[in-house]
């Protein structure tokens, strides 16, 4: 081949131009040139997680508060994990009273060494007081901190909505199911961290 005659030092990369001509009914319209880049350089190493439960175990910490929404999130998460190969023995569900309590249970699950990822599922719906803002700040900070402290993926599957209708839409109707999204992120991160 042509590259056999190229000195070793020059085999790293090459830019070349290919000319083509556009014709319409035998009339030359315009020449076009395209540049291409070719390289034999070793490519950058890339890591990606797969959407597969594999042999990983998952803890799902779910709030009983607003259970009419959170139960739908839980159903979506379990269904997604099972569709991607998780058996019942690979999924543990941990119920807590409210959204604020999710972080302490999730951290305990992450620190136990029994789980590859922890899904945090809850629903915070704005009311007429500032309580909503405090709960949202604490849960988002808390779930993020679990990631830093333990190295186990803690997945934020908490709905923070202005209305009940918005929460219902994100629990399996118009806007999909945030529990499914959390399960997909948990599988991908558990698989990815297993490769690093």
Secondary structure blueprint with pairings:
Blueprint: E1 13-24, E2 27-39, E3 58-63, H1 67-83, E4 91-96, H2 102-111, E5 117-125, H3 131-150, E6 154-161, H4 164-169, H5 178-195
Parallel strand pairs: 3-4, 3-5, 5-6
Antiparallel strand pairs: 1-2
Helix pairs in contact: 1-5, 2-3
What is the string of helix and strand elements? EEEHEHEHEHH
Strand neighbour order, sheet with most strands: 4-3-5-6
Category from helices, strands and their pairing? alpha/beta
Q: Please, what is the average pLDDT?
A: 87
Shape: extended
CATH architecture of the largest domain: 3-Layer(aba) Sandwich
Range of strand content: 25-35%
Count the strands? 6
List the total number of helices. 5
The CATH class of the largest domain: Alpha Beta
Q: How would you explain this protein's 3D organization?
A:
- With 196 residues, this protein is of the alpha/beta class.
- It folds into two domains: 38 residues, no CATH class; 138 residues, Lumazine/riboflavin synthase (Rossmann fold, 3-Layer(aba) Sandwich), CATH 3.40.50.960.
- The chain is 36% helix and 28% strand.
- The strands form two sheets. A four-stranded parallel beta sheet has the order 4-3-5-6, with helices on both faces. The protein has a two-stranded antiparallel ribbon with strand order 1-2.
- Helix 1 packs across helix 5.
- The longest helix is centred in the last third of the chain and has 20 residues.
- The radius of gyration is 25 Å and the shape is extended.
- The two termini are 38 Å apart.
- The mean pLDDT is 87.
